[in-house]
Inverse folding.
C-alpha cells in the first residue's frame, strides 16, 4: 500500500512539473516574439497589452492548423476609431503595418464598448480568429474568418469577415472625425486591404482586444 501511494504521488509530481514546463515554455516563446515586434513608439499601452495577450492566446491553440505562421494581426478596439488601431505584424522580421479598422455599428460610436457573438447584433466580437480563404464578394476582395473562442465561435454563421469600406479612409476621418461602422465585420481602408488579406489568408491568427474587457479575455480559451 505504501509503495502504491508513493508511486501515485510521484506520478502527480511529474504531471504537474510537465504542465508547468509547458506553460513556462509557452510564456517564454510569446515573450520572445513580443520583444521582437516593433510596434510604433506612438502606440498606446492598450495596443501593447493587446499584442501581449494575442501572442499568449495564440500559444493556447492548435498551431498545427496555423498554415501561415509568418503573420498575426492585432486590433485594439480600446482606441478611438480615427486611430490606426490595427497592427499587421510580421513575426519573422518584427515589422508592423498599421491601419484603421472599423467596428460594428451597435458596438459604439467612436469607441467600441459593447461586443456580442449573437446573430443580427451588428456588434464586433472579441478574441482569437483564424484567417481562412480570400474570396471576391459584395465588398470585392474579402477574407473569411473562423472564431476560435466562445466569444466569437459564431463568426462563420454571422458572416463576419475582413473587407474594405469607404468609411475607413483618411478622407472620411477628415470629414467626420471618426470611422463609419460595419455590421460586425473588420472593415479596412481599400488602399490597405490587399496587403492585409494577401499576408493573412490561408491560416494566420487575428486577435481583437478591448482593455475594458481584459479580465474576460484573460479567462477565455
Amino acid at each position: 500500500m505504501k509503495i502504491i501511494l508513493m508511486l501515485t504521488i510521484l506520478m502527480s509530481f511529474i504531471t504537474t512539473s510537465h504542465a508547468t514546463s509547458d506553460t513556462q515554455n509557452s510564456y517564454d516563446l510569446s515573450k520572445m516574439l513580443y520583444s521582437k515586434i516593433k510596434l510604433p513608439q506612438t502606440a498606446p499601452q492598450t495596443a501593447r497589452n493587446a499584442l501581449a495577450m494575442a501572442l499568449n492566446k495564440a500559444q493556447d491553440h492548435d498551431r498545427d492548423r496555423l498554415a501561415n505562421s509568418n503573420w498575426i494581426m492585432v486590433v485594439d478596439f480600446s482606441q478611438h476609431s480615427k486611430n490606426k488601431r490595427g497592427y499587421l505584424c510580421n513575426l519573422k522580421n518584427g515589422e508592423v503595418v498599421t491601419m484603421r479598422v472599423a467596428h460594428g455599428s451597435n458596438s459604439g460610436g467612436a469607441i467600441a464598448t459593447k461586443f456580442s457573438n449573437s446573430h443580427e447584433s451588428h456588434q464586433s466580437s472579441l478574441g482569437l480568429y483564424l484567417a481562412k480563404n480570400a474570396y471576391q464578394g459584395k465588398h470585392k476582395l474579402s477574407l473569411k474568418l473562423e472564431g476560435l473562442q466562445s466569444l466569437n465561435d459564431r463568426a462563420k454563421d454571422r458572416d463576419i469577415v475582413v473587407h474594405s469600406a469607404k468609411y475607413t479612409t483618411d478622407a472620411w476621418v477628415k470629414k467626420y472625425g471618426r470611422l463609419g461602422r460595419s455590421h460586425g465585420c473588420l472593415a479596412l481602408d481599400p488602399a490597405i486591404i490587399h496587403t492585409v488579406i494577401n499576408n493573412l489568408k490561408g491560416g494566420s491568427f487575428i486577435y481583437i482586444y478591448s482593455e475594458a474587457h481584459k479580465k474576460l479575455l484573460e479567462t477565455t480559451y
Summary: The first helix runs from residue 2 to 36. The mean pLDDT is 88. Helices lie at 2-36, 45-59, 170-176, 193-200, 214-218. The chain has one domain: 37-218.
